[in-house]
C-alpha cells in the first residue's frame, strides 16, 4: 500500500484528506507541522501533501522543502494553499 503523509494544521481538512485517500487504498497519515513530519523515523511516504499556511513559528510550505527533501529524498511533494503546485 502506498503511503501518503499529510501536513495540515486544520483537523477537519486532515480528516477529510485521510478518509478520501484511505478509500482509494492509500496508507494516509497526518501531522500538523513539518517538524512532526521530519520526526517520523520509519514512515517513508511516496508523497507528502504539504499545506502552505501552517501555524506561526513553524516551517512554512515551500520554505520546508529543502529539509523535507533531505529526510525523504525520493519522495514527491504536493504543496497546497490557495494555489496548488508540485515541487
Count of discrete domains = 1
Beta-strand residue percentage = 25-35%
Radius of gyration: 12 Å
Biggest sheet record: 5 strands, mixed
Sheet with most strands: strand arrangement: 2-1-3-4-5
CATH fold assignment: Rossmann fold
Q: From the 3D coordinates, which CATH architecture would you assign?
A: 3-Layer(aba) Sandwich
Helix content: 25-40%
Tell me the name of the CATH class. Alpha Beta
What is the average per-residue confidence, as pLDDT, rounded to a whole number? Answer: 81
Low-confidence stretches: none
- The number of distinct β-strands equals 5
Distance between the termini: 23 Å
Protein name: Response regulator receiver domain-containing protein
Modified residues (4-aspartylphosphate): 51
Pfam families: Response_reg
Keywords: Phosphoprotein
